[in-house]
Amino acid sequence: MVRGALLADRCFPTSQSVVNRAINIMTKAPTPTPFAAARLEGGCVFSVAGGQYFVPPSKPNAVARLPWAHDFGLVSVLRVPQHRHGSNEKRQITASWVQDTVHEYEQRDDVFDTAFLATVIFHGADERSVTLTDEAREYLGKLGNKQVAFIAPPELPHLLPGPYLLVGHELRDVWKLAADTHGASMVTLEPKLSPDILTRLSSSDAFESFQFLDTGDQSPIFALQSRTKARAVFHSPLAGLRMVIKDNIHLRGIKTSAGNRAFYDTFPPCSETAECVQKLLDQGVSLVGKTKMNSFGIWEEPIEYVDYQAPWNPRADRYQSPGGSSSGSAAAIAAYDWLDIAIGTDTWGSVTRPAHWCGCFGLRPTLGALSPQGIVPYCQTWDTAGILTRDLGVCKDVAAEWLDANALQSDPQPFSSVIWAKDFWNIIEDDQINTARDFANKVASVLNISGDDVSFEEAWTKSPPAEANGASLLEFITEATGAQSYDAYHNCQPFVEQYRKKFNHAPYISPRNQSMWNFAKNVSKEKRDEDFAKLDVFEKWFHSTILTEKHSNPLIIMPLECVVPRYRDNTPTFRRPPQDGVGALALGPVMKSPVLAVPLTDIPYLSRITNQQERLPFVLAVMGKPGTDLALIDAIYSVLEKTGSPTAVKAGKLMF
């Protein structure tokens, strides 16, 4: 693993001024020094155009054919298109081709900077087979290029395109550094794609932590690898995307905390990577870290975090709750524009609710569309991984490649109607209801389908299942919604037993979990099964009574929570699950359905933190039938696009 402090004496055993002189290569290379060469054996930090980079202590690519050596030189490798087979015609590298390639690097690779064009290596041809036109040389010269070189295919066949650092005759990979300024991460990771090994990650590849800290506020540092290099290796639409994963998802070589220090201390580094994560790694997605979460996945507000500090929500006055339990994943995707997707887990709203508070898109997929292997369970009946992202188009791309096609409808029918879930909106303020109503009307209009208010409670009263024996929906189902506590409690007991064996005393358990455990201890297996059977009755009734005729394939519009300030230093007074009936956060899980959290607007409020008006995200949920995940995303994307609404949100204080 790599350890150190960003531009600190721990990384460089000399003064800061000497370090800056030795490694600042924005203009030209410094005079060679024994110190610089020695430090590169273990990695070093340098600056380019205001960004900081790390040269890892990995095996370098030895560029033996270069006609010069360089103490420190910025390099870009451009891969020359392959020659037509059998053609002896000498090719030209034109200014147009170079310009297009550089433009692609600039647009698609945030690790690249034009400063890396100081030296350009054209890989894939030698000077006898290609000619670099004068116009191309002139174009590169205007961008600061001083030297060019050519490397023919037999040499360094696995050299990847993108930015590098040249040290003597050695070409080194570079990672851009980004601080975790919002405290979202549990651990940051070394990139796994080697610049000199053209292979995919296998399940036998162990990850290692990247133990660098920002010397200013001691924030962990993320190491970002070039997107260009990933796209050169993996032929997937997801190649080059970056992700973080929630810290209840196992990763080979890294310990899992599940948000609890005792859990972290009990188990060794994981021996396997979760299947759902491996599937993304196999498609070239770069994993940069694991994120904080509510302990064991229970609903905790920031003031209730004990073992680890709650992540910081970047929205509004930056002192708002990030939601949970996938709090770190949501905070990270809302905070960092270099991050593309964050993976969370969801039992009853643990992806969609933090999407609401952090102002981003969130998908809880159809139950069974992702493997649960390698995820610390809460309640396996409803547990699933899910996606958080700022861009709905990215969400669709990831879902299309990630979700199991066997769990999705291969030929989904058009959506039949829009259902306004009438029972769920009585806790929402009028202005938010009006915004949601407007969106529901747009969905119906764009998709050319009808919209109806539907009360599930009234429908139950009119046509109850026989098992209800005359009980209302709330009377029949409310108590049953607490049944998952039995599973959550018993899933943790093997950990408790192993901790006791290892440390000879009980582990610390947060107050929220302890309260739930105290309740669950008194729930029998028979009572748990009885309550789950009631939820099965509700699911079957919903399919046979609600999802019929004109509502046979509806989009159901639901709230997530009422948007009001929820400061991170507030002690919660609102009611948390289990709540009356199958609420908005529970309907999707109980129905095994996909639920998409959709950011619509922001709500102004007077912040007691900044003493000025701030704006909180307003995000609602749209549910489809099981297997309609991709059609659901497509439909909402179309509605947003055709009504001039954003299909992506920004990182930072404001969504739009």
Helix and strand topology:
Blueprint: E1 2-6, H1 16-23, H2 34-40, E2 44-48, E3 51-55, E4 61-62, E5 70-79, E6 91-93, H3 95-108, E7 119-123, E8 130-132, H4 134-142, E9 147-151, E10 162-168, E11 170-173, E12 175-179, E13 185-188, E14 210-214, E15 221-225, H5 227-233, E16 242-246, H6 261-266, H7 275-281, E17 286-291, H8 327-335, E18 341-346, H9 352-358, E19 361-364, E20 384-389, H10 392-402, E21 417-421, H11 430-447, E22 450-454, H12 456-462, H13 473-477, H14 484-503, H15 511-520, H16 525-546, E23 554-558, H17 584-591, E24 595-606, E25 613-623, H18 629-642
Helix pairs in contact: 3-4, 8-9, 10-18, 11-18, 14-15
Give the gist of this structure.
The chain has 656 residues and is an alpha/beta fold. It contains 18 helices and 25 strands. It has an eleven-stranded mixed β-sheet with strand order 13-17-16-18-20-19-24-25-23-21-22, with helices on both faces. The chain has a six-stranded mixed β-sheet with strand order 4-11-10-5-7-9.
Describe the structure.
The structure is a single chain. The strands form 5 sheets. Strands 13-17-16-18-20-19-24-25-23-21-22 form an 11-stranded mixed beta sheet, sandwiched between helices. Strands 4-11-10-5-7-9 form a 6-stranded mixed beta sheet. The protein has a 4-stranded antiparallel beta sheet with strand order 2-3-12-15. The chain is 29% helix and 21% strand. The chain is globular. It has 656 residues and is of the alpha/beta class. It has 3 domains: 2-173, no CATH class; 177-191 and 202-407, Amidase signature (AS) domain (Amidase signature (AS) enzymes); 417-633, Amidase signature (AS) domain (Amidase signature (AS) enzymes, Alpha-Beta Complex). The protein contains 18 helices and 25 strands. Helix 11 (430-447) links the parallel strand 21 (417-421) and strand 22. The model is unreliable at 6-40, 60-65 and 195-203 (pLDDT under 50).
